[in-house]
Design a protein that fits this description.
Blueprint: E1 2-9, H1 13-29, E2 33-36, E3 53-57, H2 58-66, H3 70-73, E4 77-80, E5 82-87, E6 93-97, H4 98-101, E7 107-111, H5 112-122, E8 128-131, E9 136-142, E10 145-150, E11 155-163, H6 170-174, E12 179-195, E13 202-208, E14 211-217, E15 223-229, H7 231-239, H8 242-253, E16 260-263, E17 267-276, E18 280-281, E19 284-286, E20 292-293, H9 301-318, H10 326-353, H11 359-374, H12 376-386
Parallel strand pairs: 1-2, 1-11, 2-8, 5-13, 11-19
Antiparallel strand pairs: 3-7, 4-7, 5-6, 9-10, 10-11, 12-15, 12-16, 12-17, 13-14, 14-15, 17-20, 18-19
């Protein structure tokens, strides 16, 4: 029977980030970390027009700088220098700029495959070992930790199990951890598009009666599109020819970047706000999308999960206790509760407000956008939320 101090179930961006956050301290303490992941990481980064991407807040940049990884990530991270927020067909709008906020960029957009490569190559195999490809079939609480049974029937005991296996976590269900789920009745249509004009680091959040639309800058003058529609309409948009799709997108977005000239593969993801009813148990932490899955339009989901991982890693390394102590895990969660509540609430309220076609609400949010652009304190608050700094001292 093998035993390790920490087993991270899910070696994606959140799980690998947590392993890197813990790596130096684990080396000093003689801890071993095992990452269990069903999909083997590629040996090298391969550029792709259709690569999925993530928006990293300025706060996430600060975390990766602390880990010594940002210089590498930034080689293929497109800075967001401006965010333009508008409501289709109405006069209200707001513009956030990095210059006004005194930061080099409000955020950054990078391909998930590139970020993954940077993380995986930074992990020290003397401290972090991989079980990959491998899946955990069963988790059993034992007196001083958890016993994991893998798909090859091998078993691994650990002081602390971190469940970071995604929003549809079967292990979360197996453990009897309930979720609070609220459907948005929408599907996120995800694709990369190329505009005729240079995006110049601009990100756009455009709200329409049929759902919000975000366009984020990527390298090579591509843009990452997140277009929220109801399920049947999203399916129609996925299946239509490229030229017809671009024409409909043009009508919804306008010509702020000129004509759209190319679109890649389109993907659709049904959207719900999902929160685990328990994020900690003795010797167990639920992390990432398994803990909270947010609407992607505000770009807050991964950034919140990264802040959770940073807070968890800091707490484990600050305490003079074995990983898995419930008191230690409770202090971690207490410390993150405000950030989680603010970020989830901000994302949910913005999504629901700007997805509602009721005329009175539409007028109110239009005036709100106008006021946001005219009132510096309100604009500052909104910008800090967007940059992932909302729960930190000014």
């Amino acid at each position: 029977m093998q035993r390790t101090q920490l087993a991270i179930i899910g070696g994606g961006l959140v799980g690998a980030s947590l392993a890197l956050i813990l790596q130096a301290g684990a080396r000093e303490r003689g801890w071993r970390i095992v990452l269990i992941e069903p999909f083997a990481p590629g040996d090298s980064y391969q550029p792709s027009y259709d690569a999925r991407s993530s928006a990293l807040s300025f706060g996430s940049r600060q975390i990766y700088e602390r880990l010594g990884l940002w210089q590498q990530i930034s080689q293929r991270a497109e800075p967001i220098t401006q965010i333009h927020v508008s409501d289709r067909g109405r006069f209200g709008s707001a513009r956030l700029t990095a210059v006004e906020e005194g930061v080099p960029a409000l955020g950054y957009v990078t391909e998930n495959a590139w970020l993954g490569q940077c993380l995986w190559h930074a992990l020290d195999p003397e401290v972090v070992s991989w079980r990959c490809p491998a899946e955990v079939r069963r988790m059993e609480a034992i007196g001083d930790g958890y016993r994991l049974t893998l798909d090859d029937d091998s078993q691994l005991d650990c002081d602390l199990a971190v469940l970071a296996d995604g929003g549809r976590s079967g292990l979360r269900e197996q453990l009897g951890i309930g979720v609070r789920s609220s459907s948005y009745g929408q599907t996120a249509l995800i694709a990369n598009v190329s505009p005729f004009e240079a995006h110049r680091g601009q990100a756009f959040e455009r709200f329409t009666n049929s759902g919000p639309l975000a366009l984020l800058p990527l390298p090579e003058n591509r843009c990452a599109l997140v277009w929220t529609r109801d399920g049947s309409d999203a399916q129609r948009l996925r299946e239509m020819p490229d030229s017809a799709f671009l024409a409909e997108l043009q009508d919804a977005f306008g010509y702020r970047l000129g004509a759209f000239r190319q679109v890649g593969v389109r993907y659709g993801y049904p959207l719900s706000l999902i929160e685990a009813e328990e994020q900690i148990r003795p010797h167990l932490v639920v992390l990432g999308n398994a803990a909270h899955s947010l609407h992607p339009i505000a770009g807050q989901g991964f950034n919140l999960s990264l802040r959770d991982a940073q807070a968890l890693g800091d707490r484990l390394l600050q305490e003079d206790a074995r990983p898995g102590s419930f008191a230690v895990l409770q202090r971690y969660l207490d410390g993150q509760r405000l950030d989680q509540q603010m970020t989830v609430g901000f994302s949910d309220r913005v999504t629901r407000l700007f997805s509602n076609a009721q005329p009175l609400l539409a007028t109110g949010r239009n005036l709100g956008l106008l006021g946001l652009d005219l009132l510096p304190p309100a604009k500052r608050w909104f910008a800090r939320q967007a940059m992932g700094l909302g729960a930190r001292p000014v």
